[in-house]
Amino acid sequence: MSKRVFRLTMLSTFFVLGMSSMAFAEMDPTVTSTALRLFIATVTAAGFGIAIAAVGTGLAQGIAIRNAVEGIARNPEASGKITVTLLIGIAMIESLCIYALVVALILLYAYPMAEPVAKFIGVPL
Amino acid sequence: MEHPFMFLVALLEWIGVGDFAHHYPHVVYSWFIILMYVVLAKVFVRALEIIPSGGQNVFEVVIKGIEDFQVSIMGEEGRPFFPLIATLGLYILACNWMGLIPGMFAPTSNINTPLSCALVVFVVTHAIGIKMHGVHYIRHFTGAVWWLAPLMLPIEIIGHLSRVLSLTFRLFGNIMGEDLVLAILFLLAGKYFAPVPMMFLGLFTSAVQAFIFSLLTMMYIAGAMEEAH
Hints:
The complex is a heterodimer of chains A (125) and B (229). With 125 residues, chain A is mainly alpha-helical. Chain A has 4 helices and no strands.
C-alpha cells in the first residue's frame, strides 16, 4: 500500500476514533432510561446479527454455485442433476440465514425476557 | 404491522364470524386451499379417459413427476407413502403462493401451519421406524459401536427433535420474510410497482421451499426405513 494511502487511512481512523466518544452519550444512565437503552441495544444486535449471517450465506452459496457451474462446464449432459442438487444445497444454506433472520425479528418485535430479567436484577423497566 | 385487508376475512365478517376470522386468518385460508384442491380434484377426475387430455393431462404429469422423483429417492418400498408426500408438497406450495396474491394471506407465514406440518412428519417418521423395525428401531440412535451408545443416544435424540425446529423455521422464515418484504415495499413505494420484482423472486423461492420440505420428508422417511449401521 503506498505511503499516501497509508497516511490517509491512519488519519481517517484516528479522526473517527476521536469523534467516537460523543457517540456513546446515549449510554449515560442519567440521560436515557433503562427501557430506551434496552431498545437501542436490541435494535443494534438485530441489525448486526442479520448482517453477519448474510455475509456467511453469501460466501457459502457462492462457493456452491462455483462448483456447480464448474461441474456443468465439465459435463453438460449432467446439467439437470447438477441443477437439482445445487438448488437443494442452496436452500439448505439459505435456511441458516433464515434462522438468524427469525432471531432478529424476535428481537425487534417481541423483546424476549425483558420483564423477567429486569425483575430478577431489580432494575425498573 | 397493522391489519392488511384480506378478502376471505372480509367475507366472513359479512357473514358474522369476523372475530374468529381476524384472529385466525391462517386457518381460514387453509380451509380455502383445502376446498380449492378438493374441487379441482373432483372436477378433473369426473370423466377419466385412457388417453388423457387437458386438465387430466396436467394432473397426471404432476402426479407422475412427484411419484417418480420420490421412488428415485426412497426406493420401491417407499411407494405407500406417496399420498403424504404429494399432499404436503402441493398443500405447502399453494399456501406459499397465496401470499403473493394481493388481498390474500399465506397460511405458512403464521408459525402454526409449518409447525403442524413438521410435527406430522416427525410422528410419521418415527411411527414408520417403529412399525418396520419394532424394538430394534433404537439401534438407529445408538451409533456404530455399542460402547458409544451413551454418547450417541442424547445426540441423536436432540438431532431428531431439531429436525422439527429446522423444518418449521426454514419454511416459516422464508415465507414470512417474503411477505414482510412485499408488505414493506408496498408501503414504501407501492405506486411504482416496487413489489413486482420481489414477487417474481417469491414465486421461485416459494416453490423451492415446498419442494425442499417434501424432499426432506422423503429423506427422513427413507432414513427411518433403512437398516441401522
